[in-house]
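Data deposition worksheet. Section B asks for the primary sequence of the deposited chain exactly as it was used as input, without tags or linkers unless they were present during the calculation. Section C holds the resulting structure in token form. Section D is free text for depositor observations; keep each observation to a single sentence. Incomplete worksheets are returned to the depositor.
Section A, Depositor: J.P.
Section B:
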Amino acid sequence: DALDEKDETMSLSSSHWDTDLEDDDLTATKTQTDQEIYEETCQNLGVTPVSRFSKEIGQEEVKLSHRHLHGLGAKAMAVVLANCSTTTKVQVPSNEFSSKGGIYMGKVLRRNSTLTDLNLANNNINKAGIKAISEAISENTVIRRLDLSGNGLTDKDARILSDAIENNSSL
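Section C:
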């Protein structure tokens, strides 16, 4: 089930919120390059691939801002980033990820063992997205820098995040 990008008003408990990076998505064949996985994932999700991401994935650093990727664009990136062992820095500020994108990036932080620097500033990642990221960084031992500025954190969100940071030995 694809997300309905036009209906941002669905509750977080709605079955329409497909926030899983399915096992099939994460077990691409070893013969596929990161670029091929990304382009295939975009096709499966019905989103247009961002050529800059396709060119940069696999390099040490990926920089991609102001591309209006939304939740599905974040999911397409997350499918690749979850298993990418060569990209250590991801700069994706101002891409309108929303909570859904935050949930996908939380899954990346849970699965990726080489990502040390993640900039998610100004993506309107709030509530469920911040919670997913907080839960992931509690377990992540490699992340060194995480930028969540400009995401509309409430005092409660900030407390959840600060508790996770306290439990993280690498941040």
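Section D:
Residues 1-19 have pLDDT under 50 and may be disordered.
The beta strands are 61-63, 89-91, 117-119, 145-147.
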